[in-house]
Write a structure and sequence with these properties.
Length: about 375
């Protein structure tokens, strides 16, 4: 529901706001996409880092969560999440030990990714130390060229055989992240990335199966490809994260309508000059993110709207510069008095969330409620 402007006038700025109705609609929408295509949904909680949101995702039908970092996962395991994939290659014995100890305490199923012999050996050593069996995905590089093994890499089969030959390890399947989809120009470009991701994974799976290796699961993950893809052959699971909030990135790709964006930042105009309106939200709130992985077409660091115009999208002012505590809105012939409130659609909701200690949730109850960002800044 539209925010009550009287309520917002009492909120100290800057503040990260969540529209509850949009949030819930986004959660149900992605669950419906997964259900329609017959794949499991295991959302990435690095976007929101919030227990309340994870609970909503689980209630909607998610099979578990994906986490980026050890400390993130530990927070959610302690809250009762019983199945967690660590979508980050762990080679640290200290981190693996912490996770396995917590998994035993909380009764959590853990799934890890590997892309090197070093990583596999670290997992095998930890498994023997804890007298357990670890479930491993092989990370496949489908075009982002960050982590993972390319399909033509001669290490691919030996890596899987190393897992298969170790009684303390179990090969679960293949996992990928097509983050380079953010560098596409439009929906069709994103769809092309998703199709290629699916094709690569199916070729790798076929190669492994021809070698006598069972591939039980094939897991993909990114919000743009989850929205745009029509290629799900052989896919068993998807792991989008940003979909709960959405932001200017999928908007710029033509994947969503701005009325779906659930996260915004409330700020106040604190000064003005001939060129700019100055707000009290700078890089420590909005981040200096211009979009990931070759993202094109985004100008500035967000778009600010007078609170009365936020739902209509009229009178938007681009945040063209940032310092740590200040944002610069290009005036464009439009004036707002000092003391005016604006709501900003940020470029990248995930990094904005990580800079906040709480969300102010609008529309869930008669008055706004606070949800803590419990995994904020947990980067280890």
């Amino acid at each position: 529901m539209p925010a009550d402007h009287t309520i917002l006038s009492t909120v100290e700025t800057p503040r990260v706001l969540l529209d509850y109705d949009r949030l819930v609609a986004n959660i149900r929408w992605m669950q419906q996409i997964a259900d329609t295509h017959g794949v499991a949904l295991r959302p990435h909680i690095k976007t929101h880092k919030c227990l309340e949101i994870a609970r909503l995702q689980m209630e909607a039908g998610a099979v578990g969560i994906t986490a980026a970092k050890t400390e993130e996962a530990l927070k959610f395991m302690a809250d009762g999440i019983r199945s967690v994939t660590l979508a980050h290659p762990l080679v640290s014995a200290v981190k693996i030990d912490r996770l396995l100890t917590a998994a035993r305490t909380h009764g959590t199923e853990l799934r890890f990714i590997v892309d090197s012999m070093t990583g596999i050996q670290a997992m095998a050593t930890a498994a023997r130390r804890h007298q357990t069996t670890l479930h491993l995905f092989l990370k496949i590089d489908v075009g982002l060229h960050r982590c993972g093994v390319r399909e033509e890499d001669p290490r691919l089969l030996p890596l899987v055989r190393r897992i298969e030959e170790d009684p303390s390890l179990r090969f679960v399947g293949l996992l990928s992240h097509a983050g380079h989809a953010y560098g596409a120009k439009d929906r069709e470009g994103v769809r092309a990335v998703a199709r290629e991701e699916c094709a690569i994974l199916n070729r790798v799976r076929q190669r492994l199966e021809e070698a006598g290796i069972r591939v039980a699961e094939v897991s993909v993950g990114s919000t743009p490809t989850a929205i745009a893809s029509d290629a799900y052959e052989g896919i068993t699971e998807m792991r989008p994260g940003n979909y709960v909030f959405l932001d200017r990135m999928p908007l710029g790709l033509g994947l969503i309508d701005r009325s779906q964006i659930a996260l915004s930042v409330l700020a106040m105009v604190v000064s003005a000059n001939d060129e700019y309106l100055i707000i009290d939200a700078g890089s420590k709130v909005l981040s200096s993110d211009l979009g990931p992985h070759g993202m094109q077409g985004i100008e500035g660091y967000g778009v600010a709207y007078p609170v009365a115009d936020f739902d209509s999208g009229k009178n938007g002012l681009t945040v063209v510069r940032l310092s740590e505590e200040h944002g610069f809105l290009r005036r464009n012939g439009f004036d707002l008095p000092v003391g005016s409130l604006v709501r900003i659609l940020p470029n990248h909701a995930c990094v904005v969330a990580n800079l906040a200690d709480h969300y102010l949730v609008l529309g869930k109850e008669a008055t706004p409620v606070q949800w803590p960002v419990v995994a904020r800044a947990l980067v280890r």
